[in-house]
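Researcher: Next sequence.
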Amino acid sequence: MERLGSIITLLRNARGFISMEELAQDLDVTPRTIRSDLNLLTQALEGTGIRLIRVRNKGLALDKKDLTEKNISALMQKLSLQKDFYSPKERENLVMEALLLELYPGSMTLKKVEELTLSGRSSAAKTLADCEHILRKRDITISKKPRRGMVLLYEEYQWRMAVLEHLMGYVDAMDHHKLYMSLEKEYAGNVLSLWNGFVGRFVANINTLYIVNFIRRYEANNKIRFTDRAFLCVFFYICIAVTRIREGRSLEKSVFRLELFFDWQCVDNLLKDNTQFLNQGLREPMSHFELEAVFVYMLTRKQSWEQGFLEDVFIKDKHFKRTSRELTRRFLSQVEKGLKVDLSSDDVLFESLLIHIRPLILRILFGIQMENPLLADFKDTYPFVFQVCREASAVFTEDITTKLGDSEVGYLAMCVEAFLEKRSKNRFSGMCRVIIVCPEGKGTSSILQHRLINQIPNIQIDRICSIEELGRVNKEDVDLVISTVPIHMENMWEIINVNPLLHEEDLRKIRRVMKRLSITKGSSKSLIVEDMMAIVSGYTTIRDYSGLWSAFDGYFNRSCPKAPLASVPLREFLKPDRILLQAKAGGMPSGWPAAFSMPPDWWRNATFPL
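Model: Next structure:
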């Protein structure tokens, strides 16, 4: 049933029809499996008001005339309930939520896990062990007592971080454009509750618009800008804090010793100002300790690299700015030695690393972890770059006495890899106008940008923008939107959701859409190249996709030299000795230019345009 939801999402985001072969390739199954899924999907669509259109030689499409968010949400809910078993990830989510929300206080046993996950004892035990491992990273333990069940042992702030991390897993899979639109409405939490029950628990009956205005006010006052994902993390942290205050679980003491790092008078004035503003729009007043935790969390989130940082305003240590720049230089120097490339000449790379390293230092000092959802993919795709950056990160240990975790190293390595991709040769000129939407920040979006330029023919990156900025883009200026998060904008653009590291299946997906939009360079001959690549990909593993593409392109699109035709003016034909009356058709008379000599009976096989 999970795959049926994916089919609906693909059809919903497509402009026009998608063939069953394309659906099969996108979902990594056979066309036969897709045909079976479509039979199930047809049954599931009954009574939903959603109509599936099938056209021979074109493929499938959703009838978008009366398509609404309400009936799409109802269908997704229906598909999620039609199952007799759960996937490993779904089992993990169920158990994690039962533990975090204490749904079975004092009675959470392995038997209860079996019942909850519809699984056997061994699967239930493995799921529970996976949840324990995740919680342990947040310093949360599970106390197990015979005949008394399982109970979580935690500090309040660590519990909130674990809940936020779990919640963001759901948020990352949501339609981000509609999510941002909903946040701009009062009490949008009631809408979010329909999308996901766990997320809805922490946003229901909260004035979400006021929280959004609070975050934007903070950005404007301090001349910074959060990345899209950082903005969402701050928003949902505040919602979680408000929910816990309602439940009588507010922070009763200071979690951080801010006086060690900041000008305390500046911080005190900031907290008083923001406490007054935020409490005007919330039913549950936030204490000084709560605002302190919110402030630290905002200070440690990723910012857009073009913006500034708060060290000139709040950092008490006058050496912070100088120290952070020195750490960045030393890190780059070690990476240069490991990769044997010149990195010091790129000011953009230095500044993008610096804007990441400054909040990184504070995350280490305050013990705040930031998960990297791309870590596993990046380590698999760029193992050497990651290893070099891991070794170079030892420079932070010398000053901070704390070893960087792989998540933090991964973000630094992404900035470096983006620079390496930028230096790669750009072999193609642009025709397809593309916008990239990436909420993770400069490092991730730069990797995607330069890999697109280097790997996809006829592509022109118009800009990289946030979810908020996308709504202001002129529809006529863009052919294609490539996003690293789910986005749906009805009747606007063709939107493709890809992995930020642009895997091979993502490249194939983009090429297929470009072909369908009829914007591939060289029209018919380039389409032949794409068809040849699709055929070869079906029978073998291509190690160098772009190299083979270039070889095919050179073969099919090479210019064929032609013998120059003699230029013969019309008056050469209109001479008395070349005009014959009542003559029998045959070969050309002698003396005619050689370029116009034709064999006898040439006209029998000739084709004459009408």
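Model: The longest strand covers residues 430-437. The mean pLDDT is 77.
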